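thought: user wants a sequence for this fold. calling inverse folding tool.
action: design(structure=
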C-alpha cells in the first residue's frame, strides 16, 4: 500500500519511511507523486495545521496521506512560540529564535515548557485520524549540545537527567520525544486497522 507524506522535508520523509515500511507501506514524498503545493499553515492549533496539510494533499491523490505539525510551548510566555515555532517573531535562524526565548525568560522562575507533535493520518475513504504526543520539560539557562536541531539546545526534558536534548545522543530523542510518542500511537492504530491487516 502507498502512503504520501504531506511535506517537502526530505528528512521527515526518510524518517517516516523507516517507520512505516515494516507495516507494509510504500512511502512517497508529495513531490514523488507530482504534488508541488506548499500549504499555508493558517490553523490556530497543531491539530488544525497538520490536518490542513494532509487534507490538501489528500484532495489531490485520494489515498493514504500523513502530515504532522509540531512546536515548543513555553508556559511563562503564554504558550509561545507554539504553532509559530519555526518562524518565531520573524527571526531567520534557529539560534536567533533560541536566544529570543532565553532573553524573554531572563529572571523568570517558571521555566516549564513542552514540545507538542500532532500527526494527521487520512485513509483512502477520507476518514481523518489525529495522534498527539507531548514531551514535558524546562528551558535551560543557557544553550548546550550540538545534537538535534531547533530548540533542542535549550530544552531539558523531564526524562533528560538535567541535560539538554542536544547534549544527549540522538537516539534519546528518537525514543522519548513528542514525535516518538505521537508515532507510537499512530503505529498502534495502523497495526490494528483492518485496511493494514488486509
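)
observation: tool returned 198 residues.
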Amino acid at each position: 500500500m502507498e502512503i504520501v507524506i504531506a511535506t517537502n522535508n526530505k528528512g521527515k520523509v526518510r524518517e517516516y519511511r523507516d517507520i512505516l515500511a515494516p507495516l507494509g507501506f510504500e512511502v512517497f514524498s508529495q513531490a514523488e507523486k507530482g504534488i508541488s503545493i506548499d500549504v499555508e499553515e493558517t490553523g490556530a492549533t497543531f491539530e488544525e495545521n497538520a490536518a490542513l496539510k494532509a487534507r490538501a494533499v489528500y484532495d489531490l491523490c485520494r489515498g493514504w496521506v500523513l502530515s504532522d505539525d509540531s512546536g515548543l510551548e513555553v508556559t511563562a510566555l503564554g504558550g509561545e512560540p507554539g504553532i509559530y515555532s519555526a518562524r518565531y517573531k520573524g527571526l531567520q535562524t534557529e539560534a536567533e529564535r533560541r536566544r529570543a526565548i532565553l532573553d524573554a525568560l531572563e529572571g523568570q522562575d517558571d521555566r516549564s515548557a513542552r514540545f507538542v507533535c500532532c500527526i494527521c493520518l487520512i485513509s483512502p475513504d477520507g476518514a481523518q485520524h489525529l495522534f498527539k504526543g507531548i514531551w514535558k520539560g524546562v528551558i535551560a539557562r543557557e544553550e548546550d549540545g550540538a545534537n538535534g536541531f531547533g530548540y533542542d539546545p535549550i530544552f531539558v526534558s523531564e526524562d533528560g537527567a538535567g541535560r539538554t536534548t542536544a547534549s544527549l545522543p540522538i537516539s534519546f530523542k528518537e525514543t522519548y520525544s513528542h514525535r516518538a510518542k505521537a508515532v507510537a500511537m499512530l503505529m498502534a492504530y495502523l497495526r490494528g486497522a483492518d485496511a493494514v491487516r488486509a
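thought: summarizing for user.
answer: Here is the designed sequence. Helices lie at 10-20, 46-61, 94-104, 170-176, 178-192, 194-197.
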